[in-house]
Automatic annotation (TrEMBL):
Record-level GO BP terms: mitochondrial electron transport, NADH to ubiquinone; tRNA N1-guanine methylation
Stretches for region Disordered: 137-165
TM regions (residue ranges): 93-111
Name of this chain's protein: tRNA (guanine(9)-N(1))-methyltransferase
Domain SAM-dependent MTase TRM10-type stretches: 231-423
GO molecular function, one term: tRNA binding
EC number: 2.1.1.221
């Protein structure tokens, strides 16, 4: 008789002393019978095996597999209380059918819209056998009934129109879109072609509406005595040769090597604004472009008709065009302050957009060439200006407004943007209050 209730077996053996049939003949106590009953029940598997263990699920599947399995898992959990075990089968086949559907759509798209033809290098290529042509068919080759050479050409020496020639002419007469025949456009190109046709259909109507709107605005402005700017007749007559203002303004374009192509484009855009403001002025200033060669000339060539502008273009330097004693180079580094514009002077604006990477280059150039230099008197009127370097068109507009009779202070307030945060100096504010 074993001293232990387990018959000497290790505690981890759940069958205990009854693992061997011989020992089952030994009498069992009530505790042993309950233990044996529990062990027999533990051998019966649960009806809903295998159980879902979240830790085991995360161990088997990485985060990416769990991500794309999540929608179908959610569908299975939602349908399982309704249709039972069939939810798992439905989940399995749903994913496979969806993948087959995507693969079929991809193949169909490539076969229909991405074929390997003469318009592209990649894509699917379909090789079709030429259909058989038998005697008696309309396309079967036949001997020509023409025996006389004169029958193959008219008296003007032109070939007669055979069916093949007619087909070639139809192909040649087919409308093209971006150099591609309409019948061979892709799906994306066809959408662009339809949008172009729609735009052309409404363009004339849209232009007519814009003209009517502009005309009504002009009539309304005349009734309310509102200035709508110069008319075309006034613009034609308001030229530099007929202007009462003889102050010269030169834009120096000799800084070609200091700018990248992007900054050169910005310089040309600012010159376009300068020209627009000068043309709309009642008394245009005498505007000149010097050192108009190289990249600046190539960039300006993108704007058709610039040769006909009311502006003087010079390939040479301003030193070869004007006397030295009449030149004044505008620079924010200069110690000289310009208080008024003189009619016989020519003011030079540096045609440079460098984002302050070449600071002082205009002032140094004026010093080296021995010509006068000066800066606009913005410090005389405003003491808290964040910067004194302005764009080409801003400097020109300030000069233009002063030439029209405005003071420098009024010109600064009109032209410079509000974000510069200009505050008048105490001396000027006191003078203004005393004048009042």
């Amino acid at each position: 008789m074993y001293k232990r209730e387990t018959g000497g077996a290790r505690p981890m053996a759940i069958a205990g002393r009854f693992v061997r049939e011989r020992e089952r003949l030994i009498g069992m106590t009530e505790a042993e019978r309950a233990w044996r009953k529990q062990w027999m029940q533990d051998q019966i598997l649960s009806p809903n095996e295998p159980r879902h263990v979240p830790e085991m699920y995360k161990f088997r599947f990485n985060i990416f597999r769990r991500a794309y399995k999540a929608p179908l898992n959610y569908l299975e959990n939602m349908l399982e209380p309704v249709i039972g075990k069939r939810a798992h089968t439905l989940r399995f086949f749903t994913g496979k059918i969806f993948l087959l559907y995507l693969a079929g759509i991809g193949v169909l798209y490539n076969l229909k819209y991405n074929q390997n033809d003469w318009t592209r290098l990649g894509g699917f290529r379909i090789l079709e056998n030429r259909p058989a042509v038998l005697p008696g068919d309309s396309s079967f080759p036949k001997l020509s009934t023409k025996s006389n050479p004169s029958e193959y050409g008219s008296r003007e020496g032109k070939l007669e129109e055979s069916p093949s020639n007619v087909n070639d002419e139809n192909v040649a007469q087919e409308e093209l879109f971006n150099g591609v025949p309409i019948s061979k456009l892709t799906k994306t190109q066809m959408k662009k072609y339809k949008r172009m046709l729609q735009w052309q259909s409404v363009k004339k109507l849209k232009r007519a509406k814009e003209k009517l709107k502009t005309r009504s605005k002009k009539i309304e402005a005349k009734m309310l005595n509102i200035d709508i700017g110069p008319s075309r007749k006034q613009l034609k007559n308001a030229k530099m040769a007929n202007s009462s203002c003889k102050i010269g303004v030169v834009i120096d374009l000799s800084f070609d090597e200091l700018m990248i192509n992007k900054d050169m484009g910005k310089v040309i855009k600012q010159i376009l604004r300068v020209y627009t403001e000068n043309r709309r002025a009642s008394a245009p200033m005498q505007l000149h472009l010097t050192s108009f060669i190289g990249r600046c000339k190539e960039e300006m060539a993108k704007h058709n008709g610039h040769e006909n502008w009311d502006m003087h273009f010079h390939e040479s330097s301003y030193l070869d065009v004007f006397p030295k004693d009449k030149l004044v180079y505008l620079s924010s580094e200069s110690d000289n302050v310009i208080t008024e514009l003189e009619q016989e002077k020519v003011y030079i604006i540096g045609g440079l957009v460098d984002h302050n990477s070449h600071k002082g280059v205009c002032h140094q150039k004026a010093v080296n060439e021995g010509i006068a230099h000066g800066q606009l008197p913005i410090g005389e009127y405003f003491h808290s200006v964040s910067r004194k370097v302005f764009t080409i068109n801003q400097v020109f507009e300030i000069l233009l407004r002063v030439s029209e009779g405005k003071t420098f202070k009024e010109a600064f307030e009109m032209i410079l943007p509000k974000r510069i945060n200009m505050q008048p100096t105490l001396d000027n504010s006191e003078d203004d209050s005393n004048n009042e």
